[in-house]
């Protein structure tokens, strides 16, 4: 397919897809049903008994639809086995406890973690919600129980008393007490309010693994490794009855309290009549780790060491459904030398075409456990059931050599396929010559079992992974560097240039390392179980991973995003699914694709038109040929000022913009509604407004699921109050063409047709430039919330300012330049009658919040402007083009926050820097004066100094301008040698 010629059609296709799904708050999620990849340790029915949760040693929780048997959602976030799960009483959230020592509180609808609870020192073995859903209990291998407030995340109380690991915990029906079971062989009944033990129950000979309160909370059940199930009277502490069993891992009371379930390591689930002590029915299926009754007591769930859940009809004894995945763990992966195909191995070889995502061929062989492919992918090592190592030809399927009695965990071929490394049960690495079987060298530095190996591309170094990642120099046998991992490493691979490496871990993540620096470049997360195999594409841009979860995944190394998942199923069939949910699949493979929307899950049939897109899958897999930078949103320039501004009495607003995307097939939504783009990506959409704040969110997406967002906020308000401006005021504003803005943005709105005090208090910027004003109008005083006022380029004298400015206490920016404020005083001076009109200190005190003041070209000297020291927040001051001969009267040295000072184009002859500032001054312009001598005081932050067009300036010593970086001056200026060297001779 020609990528360029397909852009328009693909863009239309993507637009239709967005129209089908983008208008919904929740979009359908397409996924292949992957069951648990390890033991299922915990289960729970939802309050309505329509769904169930399971927690597994594969580090995940899974949420199942009981009617269809389909997986609704997988919850990933724990780094170790999930040992306990519980539904909240309202069925909207769930708790999990893990061997990573954490509890997590999940939002079931979104799949996100609401809160993580830290506090246990060791594994969390069980969790329970209080009946009111506001608090929770956790039981841990640190011998404690902890009681948590869910909303605040705070620990309410820690319960200590058990002497060994606490394995189980549950609340009583009234939420006032709790029951726990421990490896110290006891049960304890706790008063939650006091934290005291009400009673300790002794009688089991070994660990108590499971407990349950009776429906009335007057009795309890316990299951133990001593092969008994005990029914207790809580008030007396006596055993009512003991039931002989195999090692009991799980117990549950029926809702009516008359029967109970137990599950154990003998592979059966037993349903007991408590009164008679007899087994009503035994269900044979799997070794049971957890059990649960449905809320009507008619069905039960069991979780087992075979990685499945089973749902049973109690009366008939029939198995209603098994909940599981449909693929097998991936043990090894490899790219072909040209990077166009991929091999993955489970109990067979699967050969994939990366051009279109289709499965080319499946090869079923007796070599069921491939652990390494040769670099040319022509041969492989496999580990047989009897631990013999088999080297065989992939094309002819003929055995080249069998290495008997070699107990190894991993093997790696050298790049020339003449030698190999093996990781052995004795914690050593061994380097072999393949043709002769000769041992070249043994490496003995590892103190734990080694799980994986890889040669560097030049064959001179190698990586080994176990409890850590180790980089070896082969010839010397020395360790070059060690890279610390928090969890066990199962797979490693060198990049084609040998500078970086990939590692796959027990925490379900893939990590990318810079070998020389030891820096972790990126972590890739998405697998729901351990990663067993990793590989780089020959171009070094794509990574491949194979996991115990049954999927083979392609990753974009630069962006960290998942490109696609490849699945080959137990019953035959295959599917390729992209990160955006588009898929291509065989007829059998399509049966195993689910679509979830909130807590509803269905097969893919009703969504086939939307997501079965072979051409899009093909385009996405051609990642190496396409620029995949995210789209960019550009709003028309005038709309930059709209952010946080106000629209007066408007019912709608027309938004104009453009979306740029290198693939040419981006889509855009405005407030979640699809919006059409023209050929150049331009869009125009009318947005309806309501009273108050109107956030407008523009979102652009491309086919790689990259997105860009831009938000503007428009406030619509009613300005038709009785105290509005008079019609004469409005006419004057229109006549003058006054501009008003409701933020400090430079783009301003023309004044609306009617305004009132509720609107005026939001006006932040008045633009009154070039209006030939000789005095200020009365209505100006009504704008009490002004932060910026520009009245430059008018005809104002200083005495026309005071009455207005004295009312302006919130001004931050005041532009007064190009007004003849002191022109009259200049005239009288010229004819010999000197007057000194000045701005009084009291006025500057009123304007003490000013950050910027512009008095350029206003005709005054230092005495006219008066004492500026009251402007304590001033950061920028412009006094250029005036008649200043000295600076003393201005008291500039007291302006501790001044950053920028422009005193150019005046009549200054000598300047003592102590007269300017000793604080934060960064930019100082003294050009176009009559300077001949400068006296320096410390100016530690000054970095730019302008001295252009003065006389032969000389500098006093000492001077201290350590941050000065640039200086503009004439050639006659006598710059000290040290200062000239500091600024690099910049003229």
Structure, described:
- The protein is mainly beta.
- The protein is built from eleven helices and 79 strands.
- The strands form 18 sheets. It has an eleven-stranded mixed beta sheet, with no helix packed on it.
- A hairpin with a 5-residue loop joins strand 6 (82-87) and strand 7.
- It starts with 6 loop residues before the first helix and ends in a 5-residue tail after the last helix.
Strand-residue fraction?
A: 35-45%
The N- and C-terminal alpha carbons lie at a distance of 60 Å
Number of helices: 11
Q: How many beta strands in the DSSP annotation?
A: 79
**Which secondary-structure class do the elements indicate?**
mainly beta
Q: Helical amount among residues, as a percent range?
A: under 10%
Largest sheet: 11 strands, mixed
Instruction: Give average pLDDT, whole number.
Output: 83
Rg is 39 Å
As laid out across the biggest beta sheet, the strand order is: 67-66-68-69-70-71-72-73-75-77-79
The coarse overall form would be globular
Q: Give the low-pLDDT segments.
A: 1-25, 637-646, 744-748
Briefly say what this structure is.
The protein is mainly β and about 1000 residues long. It contains eleven helices and 79 strands.
